[in-house]
Write a structure and sequence with these properties.
This protein has 2 domains: 5-214, Rossmann fold (3-Layer(aba) Sandwich); 219-311, Helicase, Ruva Protein, domain 3. 50% of the residues lie in helices and 9% in strands. It has 14 helices and 7 strands. The protein has helices spanning 11-14, 19-39, 41-56, 67-78, 80-84, 113-123, 141-152, 195-214, 231-245, 249-258, 263-271, 276-285, 290-299, 307-311, and strands at residues 61-65, 91-95, 130-135, 156-161, 177-180, 218-219, 222-223. Strands 2-1-3-4-5 form a 5-stranded parallel β-sheet, sandwiched between helices. A two-stranded antiparallel ribbon has the order 6-7. A hairpin with a 2-residue loop joins strand 6 and strand 7. Helix 3 (41-56) crosses helix 8, helix 9 packs across helix 10 and helix 9 packs parallel to helix 11 (263-271).
């Protein structure tokens, strides 16, 4: 049976005896992680497009993972709520072993394909849903069987692995996006929490951020769809609205309050001289994409402040 590259022994690691040597090996391997991501650039961009299309519609994104890969997937998806206001029911992570596996290893969970099929069936997937399976070695039955069950339900599939030649998945692979990030042998043989995890984490960070940009949840480098659930995020919301509208902080606070915490509506209303009804209609017409609304207003001769000029010269909370 072929041993996945993530399980192989790096001969350089076998010769190490001192922590400083291991540090140097980590530093050398950073370029391998970067190269692996760069080689998968087009596939990661495609992943972001599929994610954006799913969340712009009525579909859900289901994360399917085991061990370290599953935990990283769960971490990234958990951030979509406060950062981009993606509702919890539209971002579901199925972690082998359940919630308990997030903080401790659940032995045998990644080999339980039957449980994965059962978990997928309970979600009653449709063709509008997107299932993202992650397995560093490419062999986790939890992921492979879960993807097969999702295919039977008609969902769109993405498979992310650190195996350059992933083991065949027991599913019709037509239209399935397979992203293979070849990170090679680990500095500690088989410990995919290292290079494989780093590459997977960066891949998911980039894909979800590009998804947000496609859907207009990021505008001019700012998270305009954030959910202000604590003091830090409330301060950030004030700064974002202030910078993008030329409002004072106190006026930005009032604008956000009058728009029930909807930053994009507060910004659009300011751009349209306080006409909230027109702002709502405008945002609806561009599916909430603030950048497209900005283009329309400018094309119609409207005046919108330059956010980069404003960013440097205002009092900040």
């Amino acid at each position: 049976m072929e041993v996945p590259p993530t399980e192989e022994l790096d001969p350089r690691a076998a010769a190490l005896t001192e922590p400083e040597q291991l540090w140097d090996l980590f530093e050398q391997e950073q370029s391998r992680v970067h190269m692996a991501l760069q080689e998968s650039r087009d596939d990661i961009l495609e992943l972001s497009r599929r994610m954006a299309s799913t969340l712009a519609g009525d579909g859900r994104i289901i994360g399917l993972g085991a061990g370290t890969s599953g935990r990283i997937l769960a971490l990234d998806m958990a951030e979509w709520g406060p950062t981009f206001s993606v509702e919890e029911h539209r971002r579901v992570t199925l972690l082998a072993g359940g919630e308990a596996a997030f903080s401790r290893a659940v032995e045998g969970a990644e080999d339980d394909g039957v449980a994965a099929r059962r978990a997928i069936d309970q979600l009653e997937l449709t063709g509008e849903d997107l299932v993202i399976g992650v397995s560093a070695s490419g062999s986790a039955l939890w992921v492979r069987e879960g993807l097969a069950a999702a295919r039977q339900r008609g969902a769109s599939l993405v498979f992310i692995t650190c195996h350059p030649r992933p083991i065949e998945i027991d599913v019709d692979q037509k239209d399935m996006l397979v992203i293979s990030i070849d990170t090679g042998a680990e500095p500690v043989a088989g410990s995919t929490r290292l290079k494989a995890a780093t590459a997977t984490h960066q891949l998911l960070q980039r894909a979800s951020s590009m998804c947000a940009l496609r859907n207009g949840w990021i505008h001019r480098g700012r998270m305009v769809a954030l959910r202000a659930t604590n003091a830090k995020l409330r301060r950030r919301a004030l700064t974002i609205v202030s910078e993008l509208t030329d409002l004072s902080l106190s006026d930005a606070k009032e604008a956000i309050s009058s728009c029930d915490g909807d930053l994009r509506l507060a910004i659009a209303t300011s751009w349209l001289s306080g006409d909230r009804k027109k702002a709502k209609q405008g945002l609806k017409g561009v599916l909430g994409h603030l950048g497209r609304l900005e283009q329309q207003i400018r094309a119609d001769g409207g005046v919108i402040p330059d956010p980069e000029r404003l960013a440097g010269g205002r009092d900040r909370p």
